């Protein structure tokens, strides 16, 4: 009997929900056709727009933060492999081997610590921040449904009041349903009217805290990494001094823009160095091809003395 009663309640609940959906659908159709007025709240609609914008921005930030963390992890792995390579090529009898191994170990720990702190202080905070949106979004949708129920109850009550043949029993029942629908709607509406502006205003502090945490962690990470790199450089400089006679010199490679060999001026046949063109200052003209060194240059017309009045 208890099971049958339970099934009966369940069946009744399903029937009630189906009836509500049908009533809401009819009400929305009448509103779209302009045959029924719709309750509007522009202030609340603006709050909903802000909520959707805030959710979109937060979701994007969460996605980009996860991408950043994935890049940090990838960089950690690349750095670790590079240090492992150094440990392999660093021969046992070379000075500074133990120091280099210790630096590599600290390098690995520093990357791990950096990644974990980013997760704790940025990603988890981001997840907590976004965790409140699904519930509020669900309540916004529910408020919309309750608003349709309220409009439907109001229109039904008004139609009974304006009918030519009034049925007081139906009017009283319709009024009771209207009061009930209005109460449910207003309770949800008041709560959301308070929560949505507060949530919207909280975004500034959240963004500030998130990016400050990331910036601070990154700054500290690079400071500590710089110290490790300096220590490694000192070890390598010491190694180079111990093996100074075996220094490897990197030769410059010709660039693509270098002139071709065929364009170079040929060397003298006797092996003597080619004459270097004389660099002239004050923009003095070079001597003509047939002129001998030391030959005087002709004066310009302005350098000749003007003929006197009695010159022939």
Automatic annotation (TrEMBL):
Compartment annotation: Cytoplasm
Keywords from the named record: Coiled coil, Cytoplasm
One GO term (biological process): regulation of endocytosis
Iron-sulfur recorded as keyword: no
Coiled coil residues, start to end: 157-191
Database matches in Pfam families: BAR (PF03114)
Name of this protein: Myc box-dependent-interacting protein 1 isoform 2
BAR domain residues: 29-245
Keyword Cytoplasm appears in the UniProt entry: yes
GO CC annotation terms, alphabetical: cytoplasm
Superkingdom of source: Eukaryota
Alphabetical list of PROSITE patterns matching this protein: BAR
Annotated spans, Disordered: 249-312
